[in-house]
Amino acid sequence: MPDTLTPAYLASSANLSRQTAAYARSLWVNSPNYYDADIDTMVAHLTPVVQAGQMQQAYLANAYSSQYANANGVAWRSTPVDYDSIINYRGIAPDVVYRRPAVQTYTALSRGVDYDAAIAQGLSRLLSIVLTDLEQSANRQAQAALDNSGFEYFERVLTGAENCAFCVIASTQVYHRGNLLPMHPGCDCKTRGLKSNRNPGNVVDPDLLESTHQAIIQKFGGTDYGARDLGLGKFSQSNLSDFTDLIVTNTHGELGPVLGWRGDNFTGPSDLH
Question: What pTM was estimated for this model as a whole?
Fold first, then answer.
């Protein structure tokens, strides 16, 4: 039987994110100025809308997890949506978080960036924060629901909208349900339970992994599937046929586990203030 639940869930989740991001964009671009008082007004209007979107994303993830488990004959225990873990996961007050786009704009201006370009930088930062908060809500509730299900494994599901190399490679693997869901800011991937008894790390989509290999090889101009010639700090005694060893999970001070390239510099908990 074809899976109709997942596409419906992805569409509903994406629509909710688009609407919330559109509201955030409207507030930013229609601000009369970007003085402190203007930013305070924007934050006051934006915060309750984003938080409502976060809760809706969590409830959508919960409903999808329940229906998908039932459709696959897998047990699922009722999983409450905890407001605090969804809304306050960063441990930082929202009025601080949602002032960051303004700080970025002020910083850009102080460095001589053109006014319009500085405003555009602030908008980009704002949308990244909004979308990250929404996706974190969906992912965190999905993890809670997965832990209360009979699924022992899960896979990452690409939305088809914006899929980076991290997510494409990650989507070809099997993960144990006890693992956290590493992501990157703005990631819109979702998760789906698996009844498979394959070990975590097994490939569920070898064709996709192979095509990703080719894209990375073309991008970096290398031919070494072990990726040793990319100079990203990978060391292995075996002949690995994929690039998964280049992808690592870093711990972000607010977001938790996030994906990254091995060898990249990363802002950790001690760097956040």
Answer: 0.75
